[in-house]
Write a structure and sequence with these properties.
Shape: globular
Bound molecules: N-(aminocarbonyl)-beta-alanine, zinc ion
Largest sheet: 8 strands, parallel
Strand content: 15-25%
Radius of gyration: 24 Å
Structural class: alpha/beta
Strand order of the largest sheet: 8-11-12-13-14-15-16-17
Number of strands: 21
Length: 520
């Protein structure tokens, strides 16, 4: 199958989104301010058959097209959430937001593409797991999506399968875990081999950076001391446990010349490691998430167990109250590049699997619906970033890093018509009572945010209409991500050449040689 034309037809059961040639397929977004990551311009945007066909003023468009008035609004590329786990089977249950409710909620908040994770069990075929996830996602997705694949165990078969995934199935990123000991965790040698394989394939190595050995030891001690509640989760994995692994991941990947992307950067010290490594020339990228920008670790000490458990995720939210602001500063200045959510939701009764033991509370929080508003509120509304940088960190940088730019991440002629009419002045109050997610709790409950996705167009279809969500299950598409993203790999050949090991030419040693004892 050719990557460029891979569709949901990769599966035996095929569901083709209906694309009717009618006024519904022709949309004019009129009078708004178009914002890309590098410029803003007042212009109309005309969409036809799923792509952006014209941008400018006084456009000549066919009669009968649908008109969306965008005066006083920003017209931005649809958000790309780089990190979700819809319906993930995990810790004895499955995430409650599936590919339908999760992508519907994404669209409601202005995200038109998610990047989810295929996470095989130990010894499970990576390719079979990929097909399993496709079969879960394709009939349900309402927005476009792609996959990262977890390298959750190591062996010769894994390398072959990574190659097949890259060459046949449109995968260009693999996630390695430095935590989840005895489940998904790789040791340093395995990490080196996995990074080597990514490098050879032109794929991007993603890491979950926490020291799983330390977490396991600390958890055992905490439980033995009777600390069984959600606060134990945070205590078992303090900041330095994340920072140490982040540093180690940078060093190991750099040793084999493999570009690295650290997912869910949650702490100041881990983020600072990335800043420092980028200044030293390492090819490293960092993603932070809506939760770490909009919530804090103080919730783990909430006296209501259900409330505290709702925030359990790995790595944990941090209690240092300056963390969200610092992460936002780094996003604004370019040291961090992308925002995801790690959306992996569990209801109260699912979280209660760990009511007597914090290590059994299923990890994960919401975010897919609220990410864009959280970034706007904490970034743009606070004067830390301008609308262009907002577009970069919510969409464009992800499209560039994962090699789907400018099809995604840009308002340009020929790009996919994933477009959001964003009202920067409107506000809304986030609540589980009104959100579109299936989960019964929202970690941002009660927060008033500026920035509302009033109209959302995904693949040329209007899916949010003046705030009303109207979606069709299965209408989203699988978006293959080709290897050798220029944003990731363009500098590596010269960097490898400059850093290549060079043998020192010298005369052979001819002096006496000590006779060694028997090796013992
Ligand atoms: O808490 C989290 N992060 N749950 C999902 C699994 C992962 O590590 O991303
Ligand atoms: Zn296949
Ligand atoms: Zn993770
Ligand atoms: Zn995750």
């Amino acid at each position: 199958m050719l990557l460029g034309i891979m569709t949901n037809a990769d599966l035996p059961v095929k569901k083709i989104p209906l694309r009717i040639k009618s006024a519904q397929n022709r949309i004019l977004i009129r009078g708004g301010r178009v914002v890309n990551d590098d410029r803003m311009q007042d212009a109309d945007v005309y969409i036809e058959d799923g792509v952006i066909a014209q941008i400018g003023s006084d456009l000549h468009v066919p009669g009968g097209c649908r008109v969306i008035e965008a005066k006083g609004r920003l017209v931005i590329p649809g958000g790309i959430d780089t990190h979700t786990h819809m319906q993930l089977p995990f810790m004895g249950t499955s995430a409650i937001d599936d590919f339908y409710t999760g992508t519907r909620a994404a669209l409601a908040g202005g995200t038109t593409m998610i990047m989810d994770f295929v996470l095989p069990s130990r010894n499970e075929s990576l390719v079979e797991a990929y097909h399993k996830w496709r079969a879960w996602a394709d009939p349900k997705v309402c927005c476009d999506y792609s996959f990262h694949v977890g390298v959750t165990w190591w062996g010769p078969k894994v390398t072959q399968e990574m190659e097949e995934l890259c060459q046949v199935h449109g995968i260009n990123s693999f996630k390695m875990f430095m935590a989840y000991k005895d489940v998904w965790q790789l040791n340093d040698t395995e990490l080196l081999h996995a990074f080597d394989a990514c490098k050879r394939l032109g794929a991007l190595a993603l890491v979950h950076a926490e020291n799983g050995d330390v977490i396991k030891e600390n958890s055992t001690k905490l439980l033995a001391q009777g600390i069984t509640g959600p606060e134990g989760h945070e205590m078992s994995r303090p900041e330095e446990v994340e920072a140490e692994a982040t540093n180690r991941a940078c060093v190991l990947s750099n040793q084999v010349g493999c570009p690295l992307y650290v997912v869910h950067v949650m702490s100041k010290s881990a983020a600072d490691v990335l800043s420092e490594k980028r200044r030293a020339g390492y090819v490293v990228f960092g993603e932070t998430i809506a939760a770490s920008l909009g919530a804090s670790g103080s919730h783990y000490r909430h006296t209501c167990w259900r409330h505290a458990a709702a925030f359990v995720m790995g790595p944990p939210l941090r209690s240092d109250p300056t963390t969200p602001g610092h992460l936002m500063d780094l996003l604004a200045n370019g040291d961090l590049q992308t925002t995801g959510t790690d959306n992996c939701t569990f209801s109260g009764s699912q979280k209660a699997l760990g009511k007597d033991d914090f290590t059994k509370i299923p990890y994960g929080v919401n975010g897919v619906e609220d990410r864009m508003s959280i970034v706007w509120e904490k970034g743009v509304a606070q004067g830390k970033m301008d609308p262009c940088r907002f577009v970069a960190v919510t969409s464009t940088s992800a499209a560039k890093i994962f090699n789907i730019y400018p099809k995604k991440g840009r308002i340009a002629v020929g790009s996919d018509a994933d477009v959001v009419v964003w009202n920067p002045h409107a506000t809304r109050v986030i609540s589980a009572k009104t959100h579109h997610q299936a989960v019964d709790f929202n970690i941002f409950e009660g927060m008033e945010v500026h920035g509302v996705a009033e109209w959302v167009v995904c693949g040329g279809r209007v899916v949010v209409e003046d705030g009303e969500v109207r979606v069709v299950q299965g209408s989203g598409r699988y978006i293959p991500t080709p290897v050798y993203s220029p944003t990731v790999y363009a500098r590596t050949p010269a960097r490898d050449a400059a850093k290549a090991w060079k043998k020192v030419e010298r005369e052979p040693y001819t002096g006496p040689v000590y006779v060694a004892n028997d090796a013992s």
